[in-house]
Every structure is written in structure tokens, then in C-alpha cells.
Amino acid sequence: MITREDIRELAQFQGNDADSAISFYFQPSRPTNKSHREDAILAKDMVRHALREAEKNRRNGFARADLQRVLELTVGWSGSQPRARAVFVCGGQGIWREFELPAKLAETQLFVNRRFHLKPLALVLGAQPHLWIAFVDRHRARFFDLHLDELREREALFHALPRRGRGDGFAGYDAGHAQRSVNDEVLHHFKNVAEYLRQGQEKGVFDNLIVGCQEINWHELEPHLHPYVQKRLLGRFPADVGNVTEEQVREQAGRIVRESLDRHRHELVSEILGQARSNGRGVTGLRRVLRSLEMGEVQTLLMAENYSAHAVECSNCGHLDAHMVRYCPVCGHSTRELEDVCEAIVPAAIRRDIELLYVKDEPGLDQVGNIAALLRFRADQSKGAMSAAS
Ligand SMILES: [Zn+2]
Q1: Is the pLDDT of residue 280 over 50?
Q2: 324 CA to centre of ligand 1 in angstroms
Q3: Strand pairing of 131-136 and 208-212?
Q4: How many A from CA of 218 to the centre of ligand 1?
Q5: pTM of the model
Q6: Res 181: pLDDT
Q7: Cα of 332 to ligand 1 centre, how many Å?
């Protein structure tokens, strides 16, 4: 399974004129659309086409050899492929990485470029945070781990009810005491659950949390949840601990993630646009976003899902410019054209841990050029604040 480290490593990759980076995404179609055999044929055709192009453009031997290897790989895919795949290759730098992904890519695609093409990966991973789903009642707790469609049950917490009978005193005499002791045990149990979640959050084992429990139990658990855990909570739904099925877990988790992501994106669009209007911590439009990326100001980068724009990149210092200038305004070296500026900014965002969000159907974002960013700070304003203070 692909990890954050894997993605960061891919984002670090810098090709040059001699080393091409090949990114190949394979998406199996639904059985109702096409047969899996056709999927494999389509994949092969795509690689063969790229091979012909590479030969025509007299690309270096590595690119051709790499494409040949990818082609050989697809030969083994004639059977059914329930999962999508991503392959990243640069023979010149000794890189061959293969990953299985949830079958949720937009399509089968192949890219030969200077960098790895990471947008499809960012889209799939962005829509599927690493989740914990906790089912809790007064005596039991079960924890599920859901990441990239893989669901697995972690350990369960369970406490036995204090036994009645010998030691509880004569009938009636100790009833109050027994009840208190049950309540203590329940309280202890909820604290245990909260502590387990806190440790998971602290170790970074999950990105987000979903809780399945009855309303009454939620009121008992909630006060014990650490504020950091509460921040990770995406939502909850009513459930019985004893008889949850895997299917229910997937279904409920999928729904809650979708809803909360939609909400998050929508709120972010409004926040960034508002901040940009008031000259606060928001910028819109490619030119301004590129500048903020260069200044290290960006916290969250927001783009329309189909966003693409021409730009130039300095061959020396890496400066990106929305104006198609031949020479770098920063260092004076020559620039090269980028067919799509996302080739450069997506890996840059991943390397710097910038939250990357793609949105659909946001007319507000459309009006400002389909790209925007929320900033951690504004360099111009913090400088102003410093000089005012001194
Ligand atoms: Zn430069």
C-alpha cells in the first residue's frame, strides 16, 4: 500500500533532458462497461503509442527501455484486475515503483515528462484519508482501520461487568454499592476508549476518526475525548457494537467522508475568497498563487479538478512564471515552457506538506481563475508588522 513517504519520494524526483519520468495509471472499468480484457488491451495500446512517439522524437534509450518494461508489465494484466495500478519509472535514475490503488482513477493514462505526474494520485489519496472507525457502547469498543479501500479490524476493548453474587453482601444490602461500582467501571471504560484514540492520534496512525454509537453513549464518551482527537472527528452514526458488518462500516464511512470533504472544500473556497477580498490570508489567480508558493506562504492549495494552465519554468532556479517570458526575471537564465503548470506545482505542494484540494462546481473559484490558496501568513504584512514594531 502506498504511503506518504512513497508519495513524497516521487514528488522529490527531478528529471532532466536525459532522464524521462514515466507515470502510468491503469484504471479497470466496471464489469458492465467493458471486459477486463479490453482494459488490458487499451493499456497496451497506450504504452505502444508512447513507445512509437519516443522513437519518433528520438528520445533517449532509457525512455524507450522503460516503456518497453511497462508494456511487458501490462501483458500480465490480461486477467481481471479489481484494483487500479500506478507505475512510476525512470530507468536513468534507477526508479521503478509499482502501487495498487483503489479502482477510483478517472481513466487509464500515461505520461512521459520531466517529473512524475502525481495529480491522479493526489486526487485518489485526497478523497480517502486514513480512517479509524470506532464503535462504542458502555462495555465494548471495536476499532476498524480503513485506508485505500482496505478495511481491517484492530483490537477491541472490553470490560466485563462486575460480577454479582458472593462478595456483594446480603441481598439488597449492597445494591447501591454495586450500582456505583458499575458506573465507575463504565466511566473507566469510556476513559480507556478516549485514551486509546488519543494515543492513535498522537502516533499519527489515522488522519480522521468516525464514531459509531448510540446517542446516549456519545454523551458519555464525548467529554473524555482529547481536543486533538475531537478535531479529527469527521462524524458519527448510530450503530450497535455487537453486530456491525464490514459492508456497513465501508458504507457509513464512505458517506461521512464524502459529506465532510464536500463541506470542507466549500467552506475553504468561501474562506479563501473572503480572505483574498480583504487582502488577508487568501490569494487567487495563478500569478498570485505562484508568488505565494515561492514565498513559502501557502497552507492550502485549491484548484478546480480540470485546472490546467501554461507557464514557464526557469531552467536554473526553478522559478515559475505565469507570463511566458523567455528569461527568468529572478536569475536571468532561460526558461522552458510548461504545457501545464500543475506538473510543477503538484509535486512542490506534496514536498512541502501543503494541503492540496481539488474542487468541482464552485462558481466562485471559477470567477477568479480556478486556482487559489489559503496562506499561513503574508510575507509583506508580517514584514510591515515587524518594522512597525521596531
Ligand atoms: Zn531563474
Answers
A1: yes
A2: 13
A3: parallel
A4: 56
A5: 0.82
A6: 82
A7: 6
pLDDT for 244 beyond 60? yes
Separation of CA 337 and ligand 1 centre (Å): 13
> What pLDDT score was predicted for residue 165?
46
Distance from Cα 19 to the centre of ligand 1, integer Å: 21
Residues in Cβ contact with 153 at an 8 Å cutoff, skipping those fewer than 6 apart:
142, 143, 144, 145
**In angstroms, what is the span from residue 317 Cα to ligand 1's centroid?**
4
For residues 22 and 88, the answer to whether their CB atoms sit within 8 Å is yes
Strand order in the sheet with 320-321: 320-321, 311-314, 335-338
CA distance 174 to 258: 51
User: Which are the contacts of 256, defined by CB distance < 8 A and separation ≥ 6?
Assistant: 210, 234, 235, 236, 237
> Alpha helix (H) ranges present in 93-174?
119-127
Count CA atoms closer than 13 A to 35's CA, side-chain side. 5
- Ligand 1 center to residue 340 CA distance, Å? 18
CA of 329 relative to ligand 1 center, distance in Å: 7
Which grid coordinates are listed for 6? 512513497
Could you tell me the pLDDT band of residue 389, with boundaries at 50, 70 and 90?
A: very low
Termini Cα distance of the chain? 52
Could you report the per-residue pLDDT of 34-90, keeping only the tens digit for each? 566 677 788 888 888 988 888 887 666 678 889 999 988 887 775 566 789 999 999
